[in-house]
Amino acid sequence: MSDFQINLSRRQLFTRRNVIDTPALPWVKAAQFTDMCTQCGECIKHCPTHIIQPSDGGFPRVDFQQGECTFCYQCADACPEPLFLPKTEPAWQAKAVIEDSCLAKQNVDCRSCGDSCEPFAISFKLAVGRVAQPQIDINSCIGCGACVSVCPTSAITIKNTFQESTHVTE
């Protein structure tokens, strides 16, 4: 491993995309990712849902606009480098976030995200004088991204819930 590490926050300075707080790949060791990834593309070739796409600098990244992650572990199995945690570990600490551009928040009835959410983490709370409002049960959300591509206003994103250096105890 080299002494030089890429500062991803500085690389994002002149881009319009904000991918710093979104997950790169499931089970990936984020701290060593840019140093150890050879950009061979094996993870991209083996992703059955085709959500792993080349990103900034040729590094692979999950693009939830293409579909959802099924957590099949094929990306990790195909990788020739020791970049991934064991499948027994959590895939990532990423959860869905609904922004203000959501149609329901604009008082337009839309439940496409809830219909696509297999773990039923998105429910709709009835409101007086308004359409039902979406709510995410963070404990049920697995960060699969099924809700992202079906949103007509791109109001849903999958974001990391904490930095890797933070320890969460229960």
TrEMBL record:
Subcellular location: Cytoplasm
Keyword Iron found: yes
Residue ranges of coiled coil: none
List of residues binding [4Fe-4S] cluster 1: 37, 40, 43, 47
Membrane-traversing stretches: none
CC cofactor: [4Fe-4S] cluster
Residues that coordinate or bind [4Fe-4S] cluster 3: 141, 144, 147, 151
Residues in 4Fe-4S ferredoxin-type domain copies: 28-57, 58-89, 132-161
Keywords assigned by UniProt, alphabetized: 4Fe-4S, Cytoplasm, Iron, Iron-sulfur, Metal-binding, Repeat
UniProt-listed PROSITE patterns: 4FE4S_FER_1, 4FE4S_FER_2
InterPro entries: 4Fe4S_Fe-S-bd, 4Fe4S_Fe_S_CS, Fe-S_Ferredoxin, NapF
Residues noted as binding [4Fe-4S] cluster 2 in the record, renumbered to the chain: 69, 72, 75, 79
Keyword Phosphoprotein set for record: no
Family to which this protein belongs: Belongs to the NapF family.
Assembly notes: Interacts with the cytoplasmic NapA precursor.
Function, in words: Could be involved in the maturation of NapA, the catalytic subunit of the periplasmic nitrate reductase, before its export into the periplasm.
NCBIfam families: napF (TIGR00402)
The name this protein goes by in its record: Ferredoxin-type protein NapF
Gene giving rise to this polypeptide: napF
